[in-house]
Design goal:
single chain, alpha/beta, 4-stranded antiparallel β-sheet, 11 helices, 10 strands
Length: 264
């Protein structure tokens, strides 16, 4: 469905952020991209959705394809029309619009009012709490409700691929689990293709069929979700799991950074 082929991204003509990134997102699947802050995860999503230009960035090498057709040269609104919608981190709702008005805004590419109404009811089916709050201004919704709203707003465009950026950010654990279950349900029932960017490796790998790990603008590990989760380095440095009784010193961490076992 979606493939990035050895892409490089440069900001301001001099700052190299992505250094030959390649990944594939299977149609109807959930693929996760893991990594620490500053690894290049959000830049990867913006490269796909065409938003780099707004930040003086550009894809200088490689290609991005959706269903076999290149999209890396398209404007953001054209990428949306092709079926790729990004859900930004930080729950960016239109605060002064109601819940329902936010959803309608998400259907700006849809001219048939009946289909818009059908889309709203579909969102309410997956997020019944939003139906209860449909006439409330979005700025007064809780953090969890706002996260549901931005996902629902993305669904209003009837996307082929949803790019989810840090949906767990700033939310209570119970709400995070609820939202991840809904994403799984959408994937299962609506055959929604998802590229999920997350720092919460445990939850992300729990629902993803395939995973990539990014460090310093490069993919350093990839594989089936279960295989990535079972990787010893991932367990230790992303899931916080070590052998029973093991202790780690700062020197060990520095040694790990030099060693990069997964690159060998």
């Amino acid at each position: 469905m979606l493939s990035l082929n050895n892409i490089e991204v440069i900001y301001d003509g001099v700052i190299l952020v992505l250094k030959g990134v390649s990944l594939e997102v299977r149609e109807g699947g959930i693929t996760t991209l893991l990594g620490a802050n500053g690894a290049g995860k959000t830049t990867t999503l913006k490269a796909v959705s065409g938003l780099l230009r707004t930040e003086r960035g550009q894809v200088t090498k490689g290609s991005i394809e959706l269903g076999g057709q290149r999209i890396d040269h398209l404007a953001p609104y054209e990428v949306v029309r092709r079926g790729v919608v990004q859900v930004f981190e930080g729950r960016r709702v239109f605060e002064h619009l109601t819940t329902e008005e936010n959803l309608i805004a998400g259907a700006h590419i849809q001219s048939d009012r009946k289909l818009v109404a059908t889309g709203i009811e579909r969102v309410f089916q997956y997020f019944p709490r939003l139906k209860e709050r449909r006439l409330v201004q979005a700025g007064y919704l809780s953090g969890g409700e706002q996260q549901m709203l931005v996902i629902g707003r993305a669904l209003m465009a009837d996307p082929r691929v949803v790019l989810l950026d840090e949906p767990s950010l700033g939310l209570a654990p119970m709400l995070v689990e609820e939202i991840f279950k809904i994403v799984q349900r959408l994937n299962r029932e609506q055959k929604l293709t998802v590229l999920l960017v997350e720092q919460n490796a445990t939850l992300a790998l729990g629902i993803a069929e395939h995973g990539y790990v990014m460090e310093n603008g490069r993919i350093v590990l990839e594989g089936a979700g279960d295989a990535v989760r079972a990787n010893a380095d991932i367990k230790e440095f992303y899931l916080g799991l070590t052998e029973v009784g093991a202790r780690k010193s700062y020197r060990d961490v520095k040694h790990y950074k030099r060693r990069k076992r997964w690159l060998s």
